[in-house]
């Protein structure tokens, strides 16, 4: 359809009448800019968030919550952002910034935030179930869908207060807004997001959150538009005191038609949201639903007769367009160019890029950074005794062991031949030593099998760290200098008898 001219819709006039427009904090604006920067990474996000102590604390809390649980406690911001991932860190930082104050105005802020956050959780789960991949923009768009209500509250407080009292549901509120002002809060929110320079896909999704036809007919709408629209309806059902069986049945059928979500998938989404609600309640410090209410809405959903009568199979998806296939192929080739073909680890070229980025971030922020240089002892003897195919088996098995023993936030690369490098962002020297030495001992106890032959190997490890505690021995001038220091420590370990982990020192 022809793009609507929002300046002529009257919604922007509401913005101009608002006494105090909702605005994003400076840190949130910078985080938003990073989201559009193709060269930005976790280091840049952590550097910006570090300027806001309260936001830093909440990201650390998120990283240590059950939503992102890991075996070890995350104790610094760089580690937290690395664990969360670039997109999730940006989404959470913006989400925390958007949470409104609890008091003031005619809107019940608790109910407002309950609906926004519940819708965002549904959007996340819908895309996880159906598409996989990045969920951040879906979560954020759903979270923003009601932000126009805050503008109405500022610009038309008296009339809007009357509408809030008259509306018996969220959908009815949107209808009363349109009847009174000629547009609803979704359209006003769209104008606000445009004024913040929010990317177009997000403000379009907000604009169509109540009425998809404002953008396009449902079948022609983007997946983002459709997921956000469904998330709001599901949130209303979830938060309703008395579930509406007909409304849920219609929504289940709509999900089948426009989200390709069959009966089992629809129920799986509801079950998954039910498991996430308590953790998000704790993270955002607001009670979304009581345990009894969660159990009630899940039970009601299971009892909807229409769910048992919907088609059991999805219609086959259309073949992806040629451009999508080519794009996927290009991504695959890019990954191949950054990976070692034998082990699947990062290659030397990719390692250099990551080391440079992490080194600069560690020096700027004062975060610890450790590098381990690993070499298989007497590897030539393995090839000479058992053959090169046996050597390849050992290399691949060691690569798997390193990825399993180390953390998701760590980087393992094959440097060349039988040499490997482990990059440990946000890790102190003492922790890195313990981690690498446990790996060394584990490898020494392992027997690798090839053609019925048992092969044992040992490794030597050199360790160097930036920002070493209680030591002046951490002044490396570059990432390359840091790697050379770890290499020197490695060869010192070999001179001392091999099968050992040695820290770098100026005496080496």
UniProtKB/TrEMBL annotation:
<dbReference type="InterPro" id="IPR029787">
    <property type="entry name" value="Nucleotide_cyclase"/>
</dbReference>
<dbReference type="InterPro" id="IPR000160">
    <property type="entry name" value="GGDEF_dom"/>
</dbReference>
<protein>
    <recommendedName>
        <fullName>diguanylate cyclase</fullName>
        <ecNumber>2.7.7.65</ecNumber>
    </recommendedName>
</protein>
<dbReference type="Pfam" id="PF08668">
    <property type="entry name" value="HDOD"/>
</dbReference>
<dbReference type="InterPro" id="IPR043128">
    <property type="entry name" value="Rev_trsase/Diguanyl_cyclase"/>
</dbReference>
<dbReference type="GO" id="GO:1902201">
    <property type="term" value="P:negative regulation of bacterial-type flagellum-dependent cell motility"/>
</dbReference>
<dbReference type="GO" id="GO:0052621">
    <property type="term" value="F:diguanylate cyclase activity"/>
</dbReference>
<dbReference type="GO" id="GO:0043709">
    <property type="term" value="P:cell adhesion involved in single-species biofilm formation"/>
</dbReference>
<feature type="domain" description="HDOD">
    <location>
        <begin position="21"/>
        <end position="212"/>
    </location>
</feature>
<dbReference type="GO" id="GO:0005886">
    <property type="term" value="C:plasma membrane"/>
</dbReference>
<dbReference type="InterPro" id="IPR013976">
    <property type="entry name" value="HDOD"/>
</dbReference>
<feature type="domain" description="GGDEF">
    <location>
        <begin position="367"/>
        <end position="506"/>
    </location>
</feature>
<dbReference type="InterPro" id="IPR050469">
    <property type="entry name" value="Diguanylate_Cyclase"/>
</dbReference>
<dbReference type="Pfam" id="PF00990">
    <property type="entry name" value="GGDEF"/>
</dbReference>
